[in-house]
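STRUCTURE:
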């Protein structure tokens, strides 16, 4: 599987807005904790970043989406895709990617 193919599978696994919101929260919180860990030289914040980031994402998959997180099959691509999805959402361009992954013309942004 290429990353391009994975990206479409990843988006289909994040079909529900609630799943994406939990990912956004987890990704942003993890990033903030990572920055604080570096600024404060505190390794515990690095652990907290990983735990919080994955806990939010996996909660979305278990409770909201009811599917298996992509992390287990492609951990690096999954992490890259988490932040790609976040950046696209912030830029208002995620809807087109979601529509393409679904094979429709809907333009949803969350």
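SEQUENCE:
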């Amino acid at each position: 599987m290429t990353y391009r193919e994975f990206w479409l599978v990843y988006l289909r696994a994040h079909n529900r807005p609630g799943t994406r919101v939990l990912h956004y929260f987890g990704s942003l919180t993890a990033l903030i904790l990572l920055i604080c860990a570096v600024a404060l030289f505190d390794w515990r914040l690095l652990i907290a970043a990983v735990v919080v980031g994955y806990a939010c994402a996996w909660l979305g998959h278990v409770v909201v989406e009811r599917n298996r997180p992509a992390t287990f099959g492609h951990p690096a691509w999954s992490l890259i895709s988490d932040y790609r999805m976040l950046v696209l959402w912030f830029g208002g361009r995620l809807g087109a990617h979601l529509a393409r992954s679904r094979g429709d013309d809907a333009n949803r942004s969350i």
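REMARK: The radius of gyration is 14 Å.
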